Amino acid sequence: MKKKILIISGGISKERKISIQTGREVAKELNKNGYTVKICEPNKKLEQVVKIFKPKIIYNALHGQFGEDGYIQSILETFQIPYTHSGVIASAKAMDKEISKKIFIKNKILTPKYIKYNFDISKGKLNSLIKKRLNFPVVIKPINEGSSVNVFICNKKEIHQKIRKLRSYREILIEEFIPGREIQAAILGKKKLGAIELKPKRKFYDYEAKYNTKAKTEHIIPVNLSQKKYNELMKITLKAHNLMGCRGVSRSDFKFYKNKFYMLEINTQPGMTKLSLVPEISAHNGINFITLIKIILQDAATNK
What we know:
Blueprint: E1 4-8, H1 16-32, E2 36-40, H2 46-53, E3 57-60, H3 71-79, H4 88-95, H5 97-106, E4 114-117, H6 123-133, E5 138-142, E6 152-154, H7 159-164, E7 172-176, E8 181-188, E9 191-199, H8 207-211, E10 218-220, H9 227-244, E11 249-257, E12 260-267, H10 277-284, H11 289-298
Parallel strand pairs: 1-2, 1-3
Antiparallel strand pairs: 4-7, 5-6, 5-7, 8-9, 8-11, 9-10, 11-12
């Protein structure tokens, strides 16, 4: 008899819908392959479900806040049952865009310049600061969201209107806008899995471009890079994965501009939906969906 797998999906983040899709796709594939599977929300009943179901492994299918930032991982640690994807510290570091940027910079990984902003200075002073350090246009984003939630590209005229939309966050990042190609690369276990290029029809690869089929984002695989540049990309991706202390699978987002890779962020719990990139990269490299899931399950662990 194959192992019992408890899948945690849903949650309360802005990526709830995507998490539910990820959980369903993983459950469907495991059920087809003889596993005993249960899907559960990360709510007050979680501990009770774990005690009754007695899973051998917990598959963390959550995305975004409370699922990808070390919060749920710290709860899972108390069960002393192996769980998938990165642990508490790696998750917290990767989800915090300022902390991860500092790690990239310290370790000579090129990343866009940025300012941390906590709504504490006037419009005029902010404009001057941006002009001095970054120049327009800029990207504004929350420090701890995923899937490009509440990310905007802004010129000087519209920045303050867009910033008002992020008032519910205590602080945000204002980042240098890097034009160029959108390329994402993945690590599976300790190995370089591969890369994919995205050509969005929208302004950039935002939430709609990622998850809405009507957005008609073009997926290009293999990526049109020389072998030398491709090797460089994958080397940076593995370096970032290891620096953060990730396990299981991670996907890193890059802009490729003037022959340089700019690391935007690293995702410790990439989606597993029909439009998700990691299953597509895996399939292109000869790893089918169930094998991908099995490798992620094999890397499940606790921090203790």
